[in-house]
């Protein structure tokens, strides 16, 4: 895992993503990490770090709708909204004018996934209890 947390926003037409429509959120995250970052997408929850993709509404639509795919990469701890705003957000969208709209949209998504952070916190507690 890269020690630098990053948020990535990809604006895409759901029907442009190859493979099973129910996995397109994972597919776009895997493709981005492999082709742009030259690393694997690691969505296995682990206290040492993991990657998360937020699942947008209608992500599996058979219609050619466009949606935002938001990735939280290198999640190692919970972050407040203010903290997420202070590190780089990489945008992959059609027009520069959409960047501000995308920034405001990403703020509403919990860093690393709300439920996922709770699961990882429980994992950390179990690890720490085992050390005592």
Order of helices and strands: EHEEHEHH
Task: Give the tally of β-strands.
Answer: 4
Q: Look at the structure and give the mean pLDDT.
A: 83
Looking across the biggest beta sheet, what order are the strands in? 2-3-1-4
Rg: 15 Å
Largest sheet: 4 strands, mixed
Query: Helix fraction?
Result: 25-40%
So how many helices? 4
Tally the structural domains. Answer: 1
Strand % is: 15-25%
The structural class is: alpha+beta
Distance from first to last alpha carbon: 27 Å
**Uncertain stretches:** none
- The best one-word shape is globular
Layout: helices, strands, pairs:
Elements: E1 6-13, H1 24-35, E2 50-54, E3 66-75, H2 81-85, E4 89-92, H3 99-107, H4 114-131
Parallel strand pairs: 1-4
Antiparallel strand pairs: 1-3, 2-3
Can you offer a commentary on this structure?
This protein has helices at residues 24-35, 81-85, 99-107, 114-131; strands at 6-13, 50-54, 66-75, 89-92. It contains four helices and four strands. The model has no long low-confidence stretch (mean pLDDT 83). With 132 residues, it is an alpha+beta fold. A four-stranded mixed β-sheet has the order 2-3-1-4, sandwiched between helices. The protein is globular and about 55 Å long. It has one domain (6-131). 25% of the residues are buried.
Structure summarized in a few sentences:
With 132 residues, the protein is α+β, with helices and mostly antiparallel strands. 33% of the residues lie in helices and 20% in strands. The chain has one domain.
Give short descriptive properties of this protein:
single chain, alpha+beta, 4-stranded mixed β-sheet, 20% strand
């Amino acid at each position: 895992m890269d020690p630098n947390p990053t948020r990535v926003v990809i604006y895409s037409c759901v029907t442009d993503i190859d493979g099973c429509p129910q996995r397109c959120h994972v597919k776009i995250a895997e493709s981005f990490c492999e082709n742009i970052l030259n690393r694997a997408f690691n969505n296995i929850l682990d206290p040492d770090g993991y990657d998360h993709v937020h699942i947008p509404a209608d992500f599996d639509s058979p219609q050619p709708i466009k949606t935002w795919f938001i990735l939280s990469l290198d999640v190692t701890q919970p972050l407040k909204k203010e903290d997420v705003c202070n590190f780089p957000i990489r945008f992959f969208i059609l027009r520069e004018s959409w960047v501000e709209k995308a920034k405001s949209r990403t703020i509403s998504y919990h860093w690393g996934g709300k439920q996922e952070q709770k699961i990882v916190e429980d994992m950390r507690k179990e690890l720490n209890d085992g050390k005592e």
